[in-house]
Design goal:
By secondary structure, this protein is of the alpha/beta class. The chain contains eleven helices and nine strands. The N and C termini lie far apart (49 Å).
Amino acid sequence: MAPRKNASVSSRKTASRSAKETNGGPIADFDRDAELNAYREMLLIRRFEEKAGQLYGMGFIGGFCHLYIGQEAVVVGMQMALKDGDQVITGYRDHGHMLATGMSARGVMAELTGRQGGYSRGKGGSMHMFSKEKNFYGGHGIVGAQVSLGTGLGFANWYRGNDNVSVAYFGDGAANQGQVYESFNMAQLWKLPVIFVIENNRYAMGTSTARATAQADFSKRGASFGIPGIQVDGMDVRAVKAAADEAVAHCRSGKGPIILEMLTYRYRGHSMSDPAKYRSKDEVQKMRSEHDPIEQVRARLLEKGWATEDDLKDIDKDVRDIVADSADFAQNDPEPDASELYTDILL
């Protein structure tokens, strides 16, 4: 899924030397370890989300549940470019981001099922958990609200004089929120180290980008503020890593914010209650068969002789065991005590 020809790459001069051009954009040059790491991390997210969907159908997970299946390359590629101390914040489709930052599958699944062993002790659910230890600041249910908070994280880094970068993820739907542009303005005014990642999965709930936006190239959304933007093939983890390297270098050098538009695709509906009748099954299957991010890495590993079918089966088994363990833990973990109603209340 190559970037469109009108991609905005106004800060391309800072591209990583480890990247090479392909399909109109740079990709990171992965060695065997990088490919295997990307494969395992994306597969963990995929299998975890599949299990979460299953538990939702069985009634163990209540409320809203937004799955990240299909978009795994975005957060895995981004995370590969970050260092300890960098912060991540996102919206409600957040399980993949949690796992990619190193949060445990047990803790995330327990939170999804409302158990005391969850990251928010069962009170946050799918959309509102965080981990200060992993520098993951949520999980937010209000569309676009995390963008202003992510900008605030960037301000904190700037004020403290460290070289940390904040990454604020949001979708194509949230990109039309007014507070997003207020955040763009302040971030550029003060040259804050913020990477704005727009995960363009083509649909804001059931509304296609063609029906909701006058400027379909979201990488240009910061142009009036002087914020550079890059349009990225978000289905190729190497392309994501190359763009992430460039964005991180841009921010750490004091040049201010940058926008990355990730052209990606979600295979499931907007949420578990969405039948996705606004698109055809053929469209979804075409994306799966031609652009699946995990299958791309799998094919390269086999083609280059870096892994055998048995090696990949072993990775899949290991990942499935982790996910199964998280589900067992979540289903057997007790619900929070009633006294939790009175904790974490700020007056």
